[in-house]
Amino acid sequence: MLRLDRVSAGYGRAQVLRALSLEVKAGEILCLLGRNGAGKTTCMRAIMGLLPLMSGRIWLDKTELSALAPHQVPRTGVGYVPQGRRLFAELTVAQNIEIGLMARGSGPEVREEVLDLFPRLRERYHQRAQTLSGGEQQMLATARALCLRPKVLLLDEPTEGLQPSMIAAIREVIVGLRHKGVAILLVEQRVDAVLSVADRVAFIENGQGGVVMRAEDLRADHTIIDRYVGV
Amino acid sequence: MDLGPYLVLATLEGAVTAAVLALTAVGLSLVFGVMRVVNIAHGEFFMLGAVIAWALAHGLSGHPAVGFAVALVVAPLVVGALAVAADMTILKRLDYDPERTIVATIGLLYIIQQLTLMGYGPDARPVAAPFNTRLAIPWFEKGAEGWQMIWPWGLGTTSYKLAVIAAAVAVLCAVWALMARSRIGLVMRATQSDREMALAFGIPVERVYALVFGLGAGLAALAAVLIVPIQQAHYLMGADPLLLSFVVVIIGGLGSLPGTVVAAVLIGLSDGIISVFFSPTLAKILATLLVGLVLVFRPQGLFGKRGG
Ligand SMILES: Nc1ncnc2c1ncn2[C@@H]1O[C@H](COP(=O)(O)OP(=O)(O)OP(=O)(O)O)[C@@H](O)[C@H]1O
Ligand SMILES: [Mg+2]
Fold first, then answer.
1. Is some CB atom of chain A closer than 8 A to the CB atom of B146?
2. Which ligand gives the minimal distance to the CA of A83?
3. Chain B partners of A69 at a C-beta cutoff of 8 Å?
4. ipTM confidence
5. What would the pLDDT profile of A208-221 be if each residue is shown by its tens digit?
6. Residue ranges per structural domain of chain B
């Protein structure tokens, strides 16, 4: 479904991604593992078109995302939950949701569906996003992306700083989306969490793709994880 | 006549200044708030509005009200379209970089000013007000047989000045409704909050920027059309509104629209009152001094958020 074909990108002259190739299939959770600064966030920004590519292409099915203007990428059905949430801080929960619905012209039934997943957001509906707790902000960031009814969902450390029950809730949502056939690209630091939810794991080091392995094989053999992520 | 009637007169004059200033400054504030662009050419968009109003008033025959009514609609649209073109050809190419756009808009200021000088000339030219009834204002005085109503000589205003105030209030309400209640306002505020995330949620940021820049310039042009029957059109008339708009935007808090309006009323009224009782220069000195004090003691402005 989502395919990165030898993508190189960076900031100014500093190259971060070096001919990175990846593929996420429909109904699959692919986890991107790598050290701090390996280029995971940069990879997601490149997919969203927020960073000009130096070379390579990005495809969503038959659509070349890398040929679109940045604001057209989400309209093809790519939802993004960025690292650090990046909510529209001065806007209310309702308005953040509204922006998410606008992107692909989703109707009110999508809003209800999404709010049913995160009932807490209903209680805080008219509160400004910046006054939400960290966990509530993460729920809103996820909800906002789900309002696009995404075919592909990019999640950059969605459980950063959350309590275990919240992590479980977010995880449940992600697994539910997989059942619906959404392709999910997940960046996550906590290896145990990754292995319990991912179908495949791709390692990224120095902006380059390494091996891609099935999660169940990694569960049996931890050495490769130690090599790429280091402890 | 004692102090009271003078004060009423000065307040009315100040209210007209405040009304026009609020429109101009809200335009500047909107552009800065959403785009983070400090538009040095804002005063020139104001000036263009006045010059276009003169051209239309002279070009169209008939009652002065006809030319004026046309100018009220056409001048902001033409100036807005010009600003959109400047945005797409200049600011967009600079990637809206905060520093380089300052230099670019300084350049734009001189280009607009000199082209106007070449085309329109160095003269100040008047535009007739569409209506201009003199209205006397009554005053109350304690006489021999108690309080009585008198009509002091010189205490009065014109129907046009009152209309300027009313029009400015109406337009400001419309801008507020646009920002706070409409979909496009929501999109603008989302863009202001986080440009990249706006893109990541399908908002065509470049089109929003072009619209905001056009809207900001259009507001300045509208303000100029309103004031030109009182002030005359001149190719250098953009300097004062630019300075005062910056004063107002800094005092009100960068990017805060309510703050901008409150500061415009404050500066406009004090400008009117100080000008009547002392001198216009003193009014400008005090306003600039106030900016200095605000920058030192409350850099986020009276209504701005700290670190915002
Ligand atoms: N805006 C930027 N300008 C210049 N360099 C940047 C910028 N953003 C990131 N980088 C650099 O790109 C490299 C990759 O950063 P990136 O954020 O993709 O890492 P990451 O894998 O997401 O790390 P983390 O696990 O800490 O989130 C880093 O060396 C970083 O310093
Ligand atoms: Mg990261």
1. no
2. 2
3. 204
4. 0.94
5. 887 788 888 887 77
6. 18-130+161-297
Nearest-by-CA chain B residue for A82: B197
Residue nearest to atom 3 of ligand 1 (CA): A11
Nearest in space to A139 (alpha carbons), one of A161, A156, A117 = A117
* Ligand 1 center from residue A37 Cα (angstroms): 5
Q: Distances in Å between the alpha carbon of B79 and those of B104, B118, B120, B231?
A: 18, 18, 16, 19
DSSP label at residue B62: S
CATH entry, A1-77+150-158+184-231, from 3.40.50.300, 1.10.3080.10, 1.10.3720.10, 3.40.50.280: 3.40.50.300
Query: Does 1.10.3470 match the CATH number of domain B18-130+161-297?
Result: yes
The whole-angstrom separation of Cα B34 and Cα B31 is: 6
Residues B52 and A37: their CA atoms lie apart, in Å, by 56
pLDDT digits (tens, 9 = 90+) for A24-63: 999 999 999 988 999 999 999 999 999 999 999 999 999 9
Q: Are A2 and A60 contacting, i.e. CB atoms less than 8 angstroms apart?
A: yes
pLDDT digits (tens, 9 = 90+) for B9-18: 889 989 999 9
Instruction: Map tokens 């999910």 to a residue.
Output: A184
**Atom 13 (ligand 1) nearest CA:** A37
